[in-house]
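Two quick folds needed for the group meeting slides. Do the first one here.
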Amino acid sequence: MMLGSGLSTQVGASVAALAFPVIGPAGVVAIRQWVAAIVLLAVGRPRLRSITARQWRPVIGLAMVFAVMNLSLYTAIDRVGLGLAVTLEFLGPLAVALLGSRRVLDLVCALVAAPAVVLLARPQATTDYLGIGLGLLAAMGWASYILLNRKVGRELPGATGSAAAAALSGLAYIPVGVVVLLHHPATLAAASYALVAGVLSSAVPFLVDLLTLRRVPAQFFGVFMSVNPVLAAMVGLVVLHQEPAIVDWAAILVIVVANAVAISFGGREDAPHHNPVPVEPCDLVHGVPELAMTPAFGKVSADGEPQSSRATCEGTECGSWQPSRP
């Protein structure tokens, strides 16, 4: 299921790239955001009227991150290729994991990953620095998404916050989509590619990841999702015929290993060093893997173990749990 989720995400991104020549990244992202909003509203069924003004602030911030993160990633894919764009974006969760730790091992991971990033962005005759910059902007967006999603998860139960943010982002993209599609009318093929991309990169991974996190520890899920840059490079090679150089493959693998190590050995450090305390049996998944590559959204108790209950905490402000370390 985890492998299928990752492949669905990357195949969706590669199919989206097929529509870029007709409607551009902005048109594809608009359609994808609409699909994500519909899926999350249907699955999360948020009670929007119960959200207070104080709670809306981080939700609005999360909606802005959704919009910017996906547009910058898809534009980077259009300019530098799927494998490099996704690898650069993965620096976001890696940075959150490393900056939130004082372990020597995490410092080593950072020192190992840094040269790999420099190698990927090395000057070449065809280096697209704007594309690289957009990939790094997507990484900043993902890091912000993780931090904001934690806050939203504390403020609102279930998928309410993520669903509301996705809905706002979808609404914001209505004028963008209208303008883009008026200036660049979509062909049937381009519209189909964008719709398929929305389903494969939003709907399928969200539902599959929800089921997966009921069966495996959130931390293991996060480690497995670290292989997404490799999957992206492979899918880009097969579907888009984007062939990374040998040194690029090596750099991608180094970043994947650094990310996996940081998640594997750093997940329990943040857990309080006291006896476990009871927590409300909240929904297992409170966030949406908006790029379907998000390492983990399992709720964990005070002892760091993921909750497995399918019950919800209606009317409860679940402040006693924390999402797993990204």
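Then this one, please, same format:
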Amino acid sequence: MVRPPLSLGELIEHWTLLGNEVDLVSAKRQDSRLTFALLLKFYGRDGRFPRSRGDPHPDAEREPR
């Protein structure tokens, strides 16, 4: 199933670290923070961990314009 593209507001809503999430990510080693943050936000949104690298929404991997 292909998900529709996310708007800028939806990207911000779904992928921005909030409150204690920043503390959780900051507690990780610097080289694993991004991966941990992505897994944390994905789990919070979908209630599961990604099955593969292509599992997160493609818009989450796109550079902002």
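Slide caption for protein two: The radius of gyration is 12 Å.
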